[in-house]
Design brief:
Elements (H helix, E strand, L loop, with lengths): L1 E5 L3 H13 L3 E6 L2 H11 L3 E5 L9 H12 L5 E5 L4 H8 L7 E5 L6 H12 L3 E3 L1 H9 L10 H11 L4 H8 L3 H14 L8 H13 L3
Parallel strand pairs: 1-2, 1-3, 3-4, 4-5, 5-6
Organism: Pseudonocardia parietis
Protein name: DNA-binding NarL/FixJ family response regulator
GO molecular function, one term: DNA binding
């Protein structure tokens, strides 16, 4: 996998490069500001963009705005955003690009679990959608509360669904049978008035569309 990395902190940038190379990926460009990110992606056409939210030149959400610009120009471009803090507005802006496929938003703390981080990067590059559990919780709190219809177990299932987990992965994480997970997934869609979708990232996108809506 060919990856472009955008991170203004040199130590973090070098750490990400080393981590990606450890898992057999090639970093085709590593930059420290948003304009350089846009230029590198247009030049290298990577399989994945890995970018911080807050970067020069404005040291605000320049990295996120560059990622959104790139996704608008090429909705199929996979982008995984890393952030020090939970920023629901930034997450929603990214999810609103294209059809929401091939995007991810993780807190930087998640990089410490290198295997999980590498899996998340691979999932996004493959067209999946990955959200940090804390981002999901913040998105849920931003809207009125149909989630209140869900049982505690169904909320756990929804969290994992929004991270792009398959039913089998949810079963492993929650120590449930496949049949029990299927039942909870159907209940989540029913209670949120969403059509049942059992395949691929389209199921996740339906959940994310509900999370983004304000109605």
């Amino acid at each position: 996998m060919r990856v472009t990395v955008a991170e203004d902190a040199a130590l973090m940038r070098e750490g990400l490069i080393g981590l990606l190379e450890r898992f057999g990926h090639t970093v085709v460009a590593a930059v420290g500001d948003a304009p350089a990110l846009v230029g590198a992606v247009r030049r290298e056409r990577p399989d994945l963009v890995l970018t911080d939210v807050r970067m020069p030149p404005g040291n605000a959400d320049d990295g996120l705005r560059a990622a959104v610009e790139l996704r608008i120009a090429d909705p199929a471009l996979p982008v995984l955003v890393l952030s020090q803090y939970v920023e629901p507005v930034a997450a929603e802006a990214l999810l609103d690009t294209g059809d929401g496929a091939g995007v991810g938003y993780l807190l930087k703390d998640r990089v410490a679990d290198v295997t999980a981080f590498a899996a998340a990067a691979q999932r996004v590059a493959g067209g999946g959608t990955v959200l940090d559990p804390e981002v999901v919780r913040r998105l849920v709190r931003r809207r009125r509360d149909p989630v209140g219809r869900l049982s505690p177990r169904e909320r756990e299932v929804l969290d994992l669904m929004a991270q792009g987990r398959s039913n089998a992965e949810i079963a492993d994480a929650l120590v449930l049978s496949d049949a029990a997970v299927n039942k909870h997934v159907r209940a989540v869609f029913t209670k949120l008035d969403l059509p049942v979708e059992v395949s691929g990232h389209r199921r996740v996108l339906a959940v994310l569309a509900w999370l983004r809506s304000g109605s």
